[in-house]
């Protein structure tokens, strides 16, 4: 198994760092899948992470100037690694002004993704920085757990309000309740609701617009709301990690089942699934 | 003892206290000093009287040593200087007075709008420990602007405890250090290296790998960087202590850290030459105390000033220099006298002369009040 990549464009390096930082805010460990054309950061929905799952897709050509991969075998030309994105994020942050950054799969005290860069200095010889990020190789028999999730059979699909606004609302609601209800309709309305013994608060958003995926809108009454009750911390964690407003931000709701958040940026896409929790008492 | 600081100096004073707070739990006043509980790290900031708007050593000068060693709990002092920005905004002057009869240090902040904040802190009279560091025996010396060192350590996370500095004639490198047997699979290993050309002064007599505590050093580097001072690093082979040193016209600061001995296995702590009992090394990160700690009160040899500041060595060696006074610049005289005053026994016959010289200088300070305005621009 071999992997080596090189980033030389400072903007690409910056974007890549930002993506990795966003991922690091969502989860402590995740799986990095490397294929000849793409990189994927995957989190599979296990009980340990509260059932949330994540799929982040990047096209390697958007970031890397050089990219060579030799996967597990010629038929399965990909590499699956478990990594702590926080380590990657830290390593990338320190080399932001490098002339070139190399990423290699190496074997040091354990398998590592080595980030190596030469930092410019006033003298002729630069400073060399190396970070060895430890990784765990995921065997092929477990790869099925990290496949691309399919689009759920949603009841409503709607564009999200500006993420910063949404984050502000959710931040304040978090102080009052552990659970939040997201409901939306096919005519561009979304409500965020919390309800406790003492207080209930609802924030209404109108005219958000709905994505043009045909399916759901035909048979459904556009005013009917689909809703899901989720752990508010999961939603807050998702919103906190976003550093830039994406080109498109959407939400699919499967009534009482799951909230599927989709963010599309120029150079990457991020999907995040938050399962609904059962109404208590 | 009574001294007054102008606001920018209060900030510098506060920053020094911040740096020292990373090292130990106690602070010795008059030459700010702190030692960590394992006696493996020591830091000292000495401010020349010119740093202060007003500096005097007390009204009754007997033959006996009037230098009081005040030990204060760091957690009493640090909060007073915690928020440097609010000090900058509100404080006009700071007055520090030591009252031996009531065992109290009075720190008074004279603030804007007629507000005065007075803090009375109880102190213990306790001999302060001084680290003995034989600077002239150091084979390796590096000197560079503080910025370079900050740029080196920025690659390591704030939680990083220990790092290893490797020096060869061609390369200087810094890497993080994790103990064997830890769950090292989870740790990220970072190494950065640079060329000797980046240093102002590069002298490598002995190729070495020294491992020391980074956490204790960060505060000191932050202080040095904020004052744009070059930092000198003096060290030798593994096991010998490493000394970091900065100086300018008004102050001098030193950090001495113990380093891990060359062998990997943990040999029992080499007990320092010190009157007090050493706290036993309990945590895995404890580095055996290789630094020799000496009681400073009577007759012990003083801190040997490191190699770069030759004028200190000059004023310490022959007695004639002290008496003449004219040859060496005033501030260096005073700083070295601050050190000297702590070891009265050695120079018993000159004891009286020293104390009277100290009194003389502080008088001169008042006359030259206008000049001390310079200390404001740090």
TrEMBL record, chain A:
One of its GO terms (cellular component) is site of double-strand break. It holds the Pfam family Hus1. Transmembrane segments: none annotated. It is found in: Cytoplasm, Cytosol; Nucleus. PANTHER family: CHECKPOINT PROTEIN, MITOTIC AND DNA DAMAGE CHECKPOINT PROTEIN HUS1. GO terms for biological process: double-strand break repair via homologous recombination; meiotic DNA integrity checkpoint signaling; mitotic DNA replication checkpoint signaling; mitotic intra-S DNA damage checkpoint signaling; nucleotide-excision repair; response to radiation; telomere maintenance. Belongs to the HUS1 family. The keyword Cytoplasm applies. This is Checkpoint protein. Keywords: Cytoplasm, DNA damage, Nucleus.
